[in-house]
């Protein structure tokens, strides 16, 4: 009995050991991961805080080839579905963008009489601007009394009329009142030609009367060219006016050009609606490019292997870039009333990064080892990341091209609805460009752009209706055409004056607005990304476009102006600039150059804001892709060059400024202040 009792602990221990071994064996049998795990010794390490810690090092045995391939198959199935989804998004975006392009090109290929008249008015504007340009380049002409004044007035009238005709040409239907107002503007241009031509002829006669020498010969030769140019300009302007009048009025009822005794109101007696339809002669069609291959269908995408999917996404990226550049060219051709081929030469064609070449790596989907699997898995991850980035950029391109966020509702719109939406957006942009121009306006002028901006925001909203910008203080009775004159709500004073010393002392830096903020004074935008310089183009201001006007890509680089010392083209990149002063100076400041500055301003809610733009020499400012300010001529920096009452959206608002510098220094400033604080001064 005593011996049995002494042996019991041993038997109990043996039994327990057997039970534990059996449990471990069963666990290992049913769990593959445990069977592949071995335990190692404790490792001693030092953590980030310098303390010594012990860790158990767990090692897994190398999986066999069948296991590696099974893991690779599962991983590839998951990643292929993600690639398919991104490919479907990209396919849908490319097709939508090409629909936008076709709608714009169709509008260009079937111009009406308003397109033709707008093109002629644009040509007259260029001639008037060229006359003014040569006057500024001639010391002799600059010294002649009355020449500069008459040419500036002629150029301003021609510019105003050209912009108005551009607005009309972009509309699907032109209202009678707008048509007659444009005709009256054309008459004002023709009337102003007489004193301008007389001043040029008088200057020519003064040149002839100078003592004969080599300098006098040069002056006479130069003035002879100007006299001939003005004569041709006058003939073309009168022919244009006659065509305009014959379109709007029956031949037997042409009224005379209004004088002091003939009120202009008599011009509106004839209705445009009573005129017979005019069948314009269509211009020669643009040479069609080679027919593209069809975009793969969704069924095609479903049948593709992983490497084929990735290569298809890259191919569609090239197609996206082509469509985006073609859309920008068509938009420019429509806006400037120029041929599409000419517009293509002026538009920058951005290239989307198609991602790394992974075709061969993605074909290696039967790895034999962990190392091969890791390479294959890395290629899968890179392919998915690149496809996500490309699909996202494509949607941004489509939004930029169509002027609206993409959505399923908008994808179902008809071709006519798309044309109407594009026409409305283009017309609003043209009106904004006309309203934002500072040409012919005195310092301190305030242009109210809120209504046009509200219409543009509503046009681009997902619902197509009003958005929450209405909380910025616009009433239902606000006149959408008030930008042409004084604000009928009496909230638009004739001018604003700023004390430079006081503003310099009190303005604070910032890029954020809040309705509840206690700060109600002026803030200056102090933080920008700036790129340049490019060579300043000859001819009219802001006529030639540069890459940032097509698309702002802060990672892009371009060739710019030749360096004055090395004579090599400067490699341009966006550079971050933060200034503690109101005036921002671009890096690499040079004469006869063009710079661009980009930033974003955040608003907690919709804000009614007054913006002051000043520059040396001239500047053009876009807010949310809408022109709100455009200056002309060479001038020094002045705080009160021009003020714009604008409507900022909730969230981030993009600001893009183009700075053109003549001789000497270049700088600019953008100040903002809540409208109630400015108008309450």
From TrEMBL:
<feature type="region of interest" description="Disordered">
    <location>
        <begin position="394"/>
        <end position="418"/>
    </location>
</feature>
<feature type="compositionally biased region" description="Polar residues">
    <location>
        <begin position="396"/>
        <end position="416"/>
    </location>
</feature>
<feature type="compositionally biased region" description="Basic and acidic residues">
    <location>
        <begin position="289"/>
        <end position="305"/>
    </location>
</feature>
<feature type="region of interest" description="Disordered">
    <location>
        <begin position="348"/>
        <end position="369"/>
    </location>
</feature>
<keyword id="KW-0175">Coiled coil</keyword>
<feature type="coiled-coil region">
    <location>
        <begin position="73"/>
        <end position="100"/>
    </location>
</feature>
<protein>
    <recommendedName>
        <fullName>PA14 domain-containing protein</fullName>
    </recommendedName>
</protein>
<feature type="region of interest" description="Disordered">
    <location>
        <begin position="255"/>
        <end position="305"/>
    </location>
</feature>
